């Protein structure tokens, strides 16, 4: 069986071997730059592992897997313009290093390049893979739009939030797994179970991200602790807290959200304290685990020998129990 | 044979029948808005006419043709952000009516939607159509990048300019024709000839556009006359003028290009006068006609009955002799 580090090595090698034209330099250099910044390569690794559940030869899944990683990086590139983010993976974002126009256009080119790679599948599987990829790509756009919409809204419900992160995060993980499965020769039921595995794992993964933003170890978590609290981001934690708080606690929480220039550490401590009083840590962990268990059930129901599932199960476990 | 107005009616009907989800509204409403603004629908019309050269049933080309029009409108949407253009087809541009973020994201969704439509071809033709479409889409990005690069450069040569407009404008026309031809069942040679027809017609078309910006009739040309002159755009006319002008005329031309806040009509008149003295009108018409003749040769060499070519030939003629 292909191990996770072997899958990562294959992906990293193939990404570093990608050749883009030298000219126009301001179109292709940002693409090279973004792909060099690395990342966990979770989506392409999932595609290879899913393929390997059903086929020993994972080579046919490599090009589409690269396409999924390019697509993911394209979404980060455009999201960073929209969010006015200056840093990504410890380096300047493209729109900051170059300018918005360069980031828009090189992002557009990356999306096309993603399609080029995803399309490198045998003719009999091309329609299924393409349809799934296009539907997923549109859903990711929908998720990003809801995310921006929610910033402007006063109240967001928990189901709305879960639906947003399903679109913005989970569907691309699920799509990566399902594309790998299709290429590996999985039947419709198994491909669909892997999709469900991906959705639930993705939701679990994002809730863990919300959790780590407040309760993570600053030395291990890539971002600053409390970033979501500082910008009043309507995360699972904040929405849950507003849902279950009594009137007095809710007023206190809302007071911290309206102070114009709060002392950062003071605000983070105060809001974290409220979360602690409301036991939000526990609420979040329960929900994270609930989605994670659903993911494991989907994996269990998969019609392939259990020992083939071990790598995927362990990788999922590592992702959910991560500290960064 | 399918007539141009019939092809336009089919395209317009199908575009107005397109259904996008109601929500998220800020993602899908801009797409509906842009597609409602109309336009000449040149690319999808070409795809249908090219298909009809080889097949009586053009229905299999309609969905891909719609995809080509959606892709074209996506490029306009993102170009308008980059060019900070406020108006398009007599209406506010998307980034002006909504905001940059909405324009970026709904453009991204349009590109995906374009792929969805272009992919609606039979399995045996899907690879050829997709490969051509992706290559073309990337080339259009390259063209837009060169166009922006040229704004920052002091000198652009004529071959560089022609290459830029080939990428930015001609390849998508050529791709539309070739996709129509492939779907209609053309062999490799004929599909390639139609591509050449499209490239040369596209170059001719763009030079005509440069020409009309200076010599067009304000009542017929959609944009203000002299717009390119006012923003010192390095068009075929300006590059040719700088190439053939004597030192004194060149200095005069460059003087007008460096005045910070010139009186618009004064600058337009002065530069047009220089063009007239240099006979740039004639230089441009000769070059336009040269590409147009090359297009006609490609069409002539096509291996199909001459009477089938009439509609396409007449349409090309109408486009090149247009006044708007």
Residue stretches of chain A low in confidence (pLDDT < 50, at least 5 long) are: none
Largest interface: A-B, 36 and 36 residues
**How many beta-strand elements of chain A?**
2
| Radius of gyration of chain A, taken over Cα atoms and rounded to an integer in Å | 20 Å
Quickly count the helices of chain A: 15
Largest sheet of chain A: 2 strands, antiparallel
State the strand order across the main sheet of chain A: 1-2
Distance N to C terminus of chain A: 27 Å
Q: Average pLDDT value of chain A?
A: 96
Written description of the protein model:
- The structure is a homodimer of 324-residue chains.
- A two-stranded antiparallel sheet of chain A has the order 1-2.
- The longest helix of chain A is centred in the middle third of the chain and has 30 residues, at 123-152.
- Chain A is globular.
- In chain A, strand 1 and strand 2 (91-92) form a beta hairpin.
- Helices cover 76% and strands 1% of the residues of chain A.
- By secondary structure, chain A is mostly helical.
- In chain A, helix 7 runs antiparallel to helix 8 and helix 9 (188-215) runs antiparallel to helix 14.
- Chain A has 15 helices and 2 strands.
- Chain A binds chain B through residues 21, 24, 26-27, 78, 81-82, 100-101, 104-105, 107-109, 111-113, 115-116, 119, 123-124, 126-127, 130-131, 134, 137-138, 141-142, 144-146, 148-149, and chain B through 21, 24, 26-27, 78, 81-82, 100-101, 104-105, 107-109, 111-113, 115-116, 119, 123-124, 126-127, 130-131, 134, 137-138, 141-142, 144-146, 148-149.
């Amino acid at each position: 069986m292909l191990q996770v580090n072997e899958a990562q090595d294959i992906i990293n090698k193939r990404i570093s071997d990608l050749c883009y034209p030298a000219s126009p330099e301001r179109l292709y250099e940002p693409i090279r730059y973004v792909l060099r910044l690395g990342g966990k390569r979770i989506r392409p690794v999932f595609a290879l592992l899913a393929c390997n559940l059903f086929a020993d030869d994972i080579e046919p899944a490599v090009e589409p897997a690269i396409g999924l990683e390019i697509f993911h990086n394209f979404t980060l590139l455009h999201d960073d313009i929209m969010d006015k983010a200056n840093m990504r993976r410890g380096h300047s974002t493209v729109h900051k290093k170059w300018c918005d126009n360069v980031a828009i256009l090189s992002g557009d080119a990356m999306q096309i390049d993603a399609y080029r790679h995803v399309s490198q599948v045998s003719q009999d599987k091309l329609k299924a893979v393409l349809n799934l990829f296009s539907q997923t790509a549109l859903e990711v756009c929908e998720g990003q739009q809801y995310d921006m919409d929610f910033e402007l809204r006063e109240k967001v419900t928990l189901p709305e939030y879960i639906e947003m992160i399903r679109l913005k995060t989970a569907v691309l993980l699920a799509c990566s797994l399902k594309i790998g499965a299709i290429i590996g020769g999985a039947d419709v039921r198994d491909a669909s179970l892997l999709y469900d595995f991906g959705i639930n794992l993705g939701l679990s993964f994002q809730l863990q991200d919300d959790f780590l933003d407040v309760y993570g170890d600053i030395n291990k978590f890539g971002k600053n602790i409390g970033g979501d609290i500082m910008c009043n981001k309507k995360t699972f934690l904040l929405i849950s807290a507003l849902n279950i708080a009594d009137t007095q606690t809710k007023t206190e929480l809302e007071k911290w959200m309206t102070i114009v220039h709060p002392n950062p550490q003071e605000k983070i401590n105060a809001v974290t304290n409220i979360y602690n009083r409301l036991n939000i840590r526990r609420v979040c962990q329960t929900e994270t685990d609930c989605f994670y268990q659903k993911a494991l059930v989907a994996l269990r129901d998969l019609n392939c020998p259990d020992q083939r599932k071990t790598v995927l199960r362990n990788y999922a476990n590592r992702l959910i129990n991560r500290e960064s």
